[in-house]
Amino acid sequence: MAFGGENAESYYDEGLTAFMKGDVDAAARFLVRAIQLDRSMLAAHHQLGKCYVRMGQAQRAVEILGQVVVQRPDLIAARLDLGHALLAQGLADRARKQFSHVLAIDPHNARAHLGMAQVCFQEGNWDGAVTLAQGARAHGGASFAVLFLLGRAAKLAGNAVLSGESLKEAQALIEKSVEMTPDAPEGHYLRGEVCFAQARFGSALEHYRAAQDRVEGKRHYSAFGESFTRLDILVKRGLCHQRLGDVEAATVIGRQVLAAHPKHKLGKALSDLASGEQGGAD
After folding, report:
1. From CA 84, how far away is CA 101, in angstroms rounded?
2. Cβ–Cβ < 8 Å for 38, 27
3. Any idea of the CA torsion for 82, 84, 88, 93, to the nearest 10 degrees?
4. Is residue 119 domain-resident?
5. What is the pLDDT of residues 209-262, one digit of tens each?
6. What CA–CA distances, in Å, run from 199 to 132, 136, 195?
7. What CATH number is given to the structural domain containing 9?
């Protein structure tokens, strides 16, 4: 029973609290119970959709958030979350429609500009991603999510100077986060992500290890728009070993990933490295 009693509002509050603490599984359970008690509670449906995005269940998130948007087409936050859920599913065209709809209503919405930049990035339109990420920065400031995307997109677009500057700024922001919460895995993981984007694979490996030492079981983590689990960290460690030429270590990690998730594509690619089948891990 929820702390406030057996009613939808109490379970909704418990769900929000758990979500803010990063316990997404518990949050989802509370929110499901809130919906069972009051199926008209649209806010609970919205938050449950966000939980499923964080849990890597993009299809379920799209279904729930899509229903929220149908019932409340004016709810910008739900459209933005639906756009990101669609991106997580690889449905860039559908995601673009959601972000475009928001921009038609609010041309200065930084999250919508960032979403459009992520659409371009997913489609391989590096120049478009750079332009839109710069727009997101102009409208919403230099957040980690904006700088990290801008740095990666600029690198792929051939703008080494902009990429270097953006990733350096992103690194500075995440360093401050680690200083404030050194025992939290999120900052260490994102330090690894920045180093990986900078092709500093040895440093990235150290930060991923630090993150892995701090994660708890199968819990889902999220910070600055990036979500991950212990399995994601393990995959990134394997990719670092691959880039560093340590095929044996990368292969071992690939097998560990497959033991936990037999259909994991990158896990399969890493596990095949020893036999010379390296294309899938690039």
Report:
1. 14
2. no
3. 80
4. no
5. 999 999 988 788 888 888 899 999 999 999 999 999 999 999 999 999 999 999
6. 24, 25, 6
7. 1.25.40.10
